[in-house]
Amino acid sequence: MKKIFKILVLGFLFVMANSGVVSAEITKNFYGYQVKNVNVRDLVSRIDNAINAYRGVDKFKPLENVHNAYIYSDANSSYFVRLYPSNQNTNIYVVSNEKYDVERNELTDLLYRGGYKYTKLEDDDALKEYKFDFYTLARKQELGNFYISPDLVKPLKTGMKKLNNNMAKNNKKTSVFPYTPDTDPIDLDCVDTTTYYDRNARIYIVQKEYRLKQKENKYVHAFEYVLSNKNNLKATVTATSERLAALKDVTTESFVDLDRLDLIDTVGTFPPVLVLTAGTSALLSVPNWVRLARITAESKRFSNALPENYELKAQSDMRILVLKYKDDPKPLNFNIKFADGTVHNITF
């Protein structure tokens, strides 16, 4: 273990020396706010309107390829800002250099001028998830003002993933769990709720998004759809989607990153901002099979097949549970055929 640690330290020094930031003052500054009683869609719209109406030097710039994210920069500081849903509230995640004043800055001034009530974000699970999202974006080089080091043990994790895939190929394949109605309570944090109503079909849909408790929440979220038939006719419902996360995909992704430990996660002066992390799941071996069992148990409930020609009685509800990838959540497509022959297609 000491030898491995020395290798990681030497790798860190090598990256620092070759990145040209060895003299940069390194610090860590990740911070979160929660804006009370304002939905993320409303807050994003108001922030975008405020940015567009501003006639001074353009300091806040929305990121084109990242949902609800901005880069703020001026002569003294730079920070990454991203807004997340938190049910009826909005969470704001900030990554900055050492000159960021968490109490008074352009972001808090913007919130103050808008009359928003906000507090420090205390949800550790949310903060861990948002930090992982930031690392992922930075490594994909989608944050123009932020630079990130290579993952020092990426070859090791890639090899483990290939091995896991080969093992899965040699195992007996099992069929997808068939769709079955699920009426039990969901004991997960709800992060967002959206609704849809089709007046012609008289179909009402509530979609809820949940954060999972195990480490698969880095890649996927659980979604609940409650479809209500407000019509006086029974209907058959078939649901499809372009892309959902399957149980095998979740366990494979989680296994190679099961005990990802950020040995060093630092942000330096601007420019550049450096974040160095090293995944060490194979090196710091805590019983991985225990965590994998928990992940499988939690995800299995949301991994059933989508309903096909499911009979939905008049004035009744049905519930569908699915897993969606956080980086590209795809909607469900509903084909609804009523007893009188009318057909309605809804995408939500």
> Whole-number average pLDDT?
76
Question: How many beta strands in the DSSP annotation?
Answer: 18
Q: Could you estimate the helical fraction of the residues in percent?
A: 25-40%
Along the chain, the helix and strand elements come as: HEEHEEEEHEHEHEEEEHEEHEEEE
Radius of gyration: 23 Å
Number of helices: 7
Largest sheet: 6 strands, antiparallel
Pick out the low-confidence regions.
1-27, 149-161, 171-175, 255-287
Which structural class is indicated by helix and strand composition? alpha+beta
Strand content: 25-35%
Silhouette: elongated
Textual characterization of the structure:
With 348 residues, this protein is an alpha+beta fold. Helix content is 28%, strand content 29%. It contains 7 helices and 18 strands. It has a 6-stranded antiparallel sheet with strand order 3-4-5-6-2-7, with helices on both faces. A hairpin with a 4-residue loop joins strand 4 and strand 5. It is elongated and about 65 Å long. The N terminus is likely disordered.
